[in-house]
Automatic annotation (TrEMBL):
The keyword DNA-binding is assigned to this record: yes
Matches recorded under SMART domains: HTH_MARR
Organism lineage string: Bacteria, Pseudomonadati, Pseudomonadota, Betaproteobacteria, Burkholderiales
One of the Pfam families matching this protein, by short name: Staph_reg_Sar_Rot
Superkingdom: Bacteria
Compartments reported by the entry: Cytoplasm
Name of the protein in question: MarR family transcriptional regulator
InterPro entries: HTH_MarR-typ, MarR/SlyA-like, Transc_reg_Sar_Rot_HTH, WH-like_DNA-bd_sf, WH_DNA-bd_sf
Keyword DNA-binding appears in the UniProt entry: yes
Cellular component terms (Gene Ontology): cytoplasm
Record domain HTH marR-type: where: 5-135
Amino acid sequence: MLQLDNQLCFALYSTSLAMTKLYKPLLDALGLTYPQYLVMLVLWEQDHLTVGALGERLFLDSGTLTPLLKRMESSGWLTRTRAKEDERRVVVSLTPAGQALRQSAISVPRQVSGAAQCSADELHDLRRRLHDLRRRLAPQAVSDAPGSDPATHKVEAA
């Protein structure tokens, strides 16, 4: 039937809102917004990425990512420098403060998992299914993204 609660898109949308609301106070304590937290997660995995590579990983275009990175740079979390071999490319690197922030953020996934009231297996299965759905909906965008294989992801949080 054509009812709001029967729509997968609404279930995903409303769950995303609830997750973002859950993350907000945890990230406020770190001085980060949710999009900034995602940038930091990628850079904690692999530092010194180009803006393009970072955008691919996060599924964000440079028009969205550049202002976000500028704010993070002014906050002291990262630097943006032109690549020596190709000045059109901008390399994003963590500062010592950005690297140190990782230690403060370690508890965030555990706190989110606890609030979700699901087992680690349930969360892993849900994440796997969501990655699979995303891959089916946008096969080219997902298959080209580095690190997009859910089978390689360690279960740590929702």
